[in-house]
């Protein structure tokens, strides 16, 4: 019989493996066209509207230089644009373009289809148990 400590180590290793596998699979879903950070920025702008780079940096807990690099890539793809405030020219907001909105919606559908397929063999109760346990782990 495994000790509690052995079970904890096994669980920790499995969580790392599952997380890594899900990230790899999601990269395939996104066809390496979009990074996770690009996705999170597009999703944030889609759900919350225009934001300053500094706001995104705080929300995503990444450096300002990282946000600049990611937003430069999104601008190059014409998925977002920088717009100067009419009230204060020093302020630059990031806006989602129509192309960015359409791209996000397409990738959201791909992500949903992937997750539905990935969890197809799990019952609704299994999924509820995952949610309960993950929330419990977050609060610990």
* Cα-to-Cα separation, first versus last residue: 26 Å
Helix content percent band: 55-70%
What integer is the average pLDDT? Answer: 94
Estimate the strand proportion. Answer: 5-15%
Total domains: 2
3D shape: elongated
Structural class: mainly alpha
CATH topology of the largest domain: Arc Repressor Mutant, subunit A
- Enumerate how many helices there are, as a single number: 6
| CATH domain class name of the largest domain | Mainly Alpha
Main sheet summary: 3 strands, antiparallel
Q: Which spans of ≥5 residues are poorly predicted at pLDDT below 50?
A: none
- CATH homologous superfamily identity of the largest domain: Winged helix-like DNA-binding domain superfamily/Winged helix DNA-binding domain
What gyration radius follows from the Cα positions, in whole Å?
19 Å
SSE order = HHEHHEEHH
List how many beta strands DSSP finds: 3
Report on the structure:
It contains 6 helices and 3 strands. It is mainly α. It folds into 2 domains: 1-32; 36-112, Arc Repressor Mutant, subunit A (Orthogonal Bundle). It has a 3-stranded antiparallel sheet. Strand 2 and strand 3 (92-96) form a beta hairpin. Helix 3 (53-60) crosses helix 4 (64-76). It starts with a helix and ends with a helix.
Question: What would a concise description of this structure say?
Answer:
This protein has two domains: 1-32; 36-112, Winged helix-like DNA-binding domain superfamily/Winged helix DNA-binding domain (Arc Repressor Mutant, subunit A). It has six helices and three strands; from the N terminus they run H-H-E-H-H-E-E-H-H. The chain has helices at 4-29, 36-48, 53-60, 64-76, 98-118, 124-139; strands at 51-52, 80-84, 92-96.
